[in-house]
């Protein structure tokens, strides 16, 4: 079994368990459930936007522990001050060390920044959870969902006011999964089954994504030159976790990257 299959199998038992403990009606009573959501799409396409979505990620199956010494509210607030247009916070516990509590702390610290609930969504119950914790955007990963599931979950997410980021890794996934219930397309440079990363994946798929979807390049992004190159290829969003999280001060690492991108674009 590859790691993605393992994560999804575990997620099914986790969701079944959560459903037996907390009903949809109870999730709807959560204080943040009815909160008006913020648009990541608008934030990424605004004039002068950095396009950077910074991720709070404690550990991952490919890297092990990345950083277990920092706090979600401090780091994410620093990210926003340093120029992030959006935040991504892992809520998967067993494989990524994230929690709803991490998400909640980041949410409270950043009331006006669009936030992605980063998890493996396989059931509409999780969309209700996303609303209850104050998420604005959810992720649908083509590698672990059928085209029908993507369409169904995308439609449900929209009916709750959530934006939808569809994640693809190759041409086939893109062609089979893209539908009207998606707002943004994320190209994951990391193959979730093998962990191999290549920015070429984003460069190759760019022209195949219709322009009515905001394009986001995800994973293994490390330097300003790559961001500038991806922007020229049509990407408006850049999802970055490890490059920041592996440092003592993730927000400072983002600030440095933004400064470098700015100087390269000004003198290009
Ligand atoms: O830490 P990186 O290499 O900058 O990657 C961030 C993000 O793209 C990555 O965490 C990710 C992309 N898609 C996912 C799906 C599930 C879990 C995690 C991910």
TrEMBL record:
<feature type="domain" description="Indole-3-glycerol phosphate synthase">
    <location>
        <begin position="4"/>
        <end position="256"/>
    </location>
</feature>
<keyword id="KW-0028">Amino-acid biosynthesis</keyword>
<dbReference type="InterPro" id="IPR013798">
    <property type="entry name" value="Indole-3-glycerol_P_synth_dom"/>
</dbReference>
<keyword id="KW-0057">Aromatic amino acid biosynthesis</keyword>
<dbReference type="GO" id="GO:0004425">
    <property type="term" value="F:indole-3-glycerol-phosphate synthase activity"/>
</dbReference>
<keyword id="KW-0456">Lyase</keyword>
<dbReference type="InterPro" id="IPR045186">
    <property type="entry name" value="Indole-3-glycerol_P_synth"/>
</dbReference>
<keyword id="KW-0822">Tryptophan biosynthesis</keyword>
<comment type="similarity">
    <text>Belongs to the TrpC family.</text>
</comment>
<comment type="pathway">
    <text>Amino-acid biosynthesis; L-tryptophan biosynthesis; L-tryptophan from chorismate: step 4/5.</text>
</comment>
<dbReference type="GO" id="GO:0004640">
    <property type="term" value="F:phosphoribosylanthranilate isomerase activity"/>
</dbReference>
<dbReference type="Pfam" id="PF00218">
    <property type="entry name" value="IGPS"/>
</dbReference>
<dbReference type="GO" id="GO:0000162">
    <property type="term" value="P:L-tryptophan biosynthetic process"/>
</dbReference>
<dbReference type="InterPro" id="IPR011060">
    <property type="entry name" value="RibuloseP-bd_barrel"/>
</dbReference>
<keyword id="KW-0210">Decarboxylase</keyword>
<dbReference type="InterPro" id="IPR001468">
    <property type="entry name" value="Indole-3-GlycerolPSynthase_CS"/>
</dbReference>
<protein>
    <recommendedName>
        <fullName>Indole-3-glycerol phosphate synthase</fullName>
        <ecNumber>4.1.1.48</ecNumber>
    </recommendedName>
</protein>
<dbReference type="InterPro" id="IPR013785">
    <property type="entry name" value="Aldolase_TIM"/>
</dbReference>
């Amino acid at each position: 079994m590859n790691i993605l299959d393992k994560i999804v199998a575990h997620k099914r038992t986790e969701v079944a368990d959560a459903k037996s403990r907390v009903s949809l009606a109870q999730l709807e009573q959560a204080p943040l459930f009815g909160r008006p959501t913020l648009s990541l799409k608008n934030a990424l396409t605004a004039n002068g936007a950095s396009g950077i979505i910074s991720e709070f990620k404690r550990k991952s199956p490919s890297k092990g522990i990345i950083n277990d010494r920092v706090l979600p509210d401090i780091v994410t607030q620093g990210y926003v001050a340093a120029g992030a247009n959006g935040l991504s916070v892992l809520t998967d516990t067993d494989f990524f060390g994230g929690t709803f509590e991490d998400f909640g702390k980041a949410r409270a610290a950043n009331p006006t920044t669009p936030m992605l609930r980063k998890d493996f969504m396989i059931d509409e119950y999780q969309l209700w959870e996303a609303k209850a914790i104050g998420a604005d955007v959810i992720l649908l990963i083509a590698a672990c969902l059928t085209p029908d599931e993507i369409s169904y979950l995308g439609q449900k997410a929209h009916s709750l006011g959530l934006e939808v980021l569809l994640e693809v890794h190759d041409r086939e996934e893109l062609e089979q999964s893209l539908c009207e219930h998606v707002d943004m397309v994320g190209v994951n440079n990391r193959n979730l089954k093998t962990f191999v990363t290549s920015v070429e994946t984003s460069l190759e798929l760019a022209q195949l994504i219709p322009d009515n979807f905001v394009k986001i390049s995800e994973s293994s992004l490390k330097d300003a030159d790559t961001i500038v190159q991806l922007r020229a290829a049509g990407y408006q969003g850049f999802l970055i976790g490890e490059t920041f999280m592996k440092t003592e001060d993730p927000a400072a690492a983002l600030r440095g990257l933004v400064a470098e991108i700015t100087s390269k674009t000004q003198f290009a």
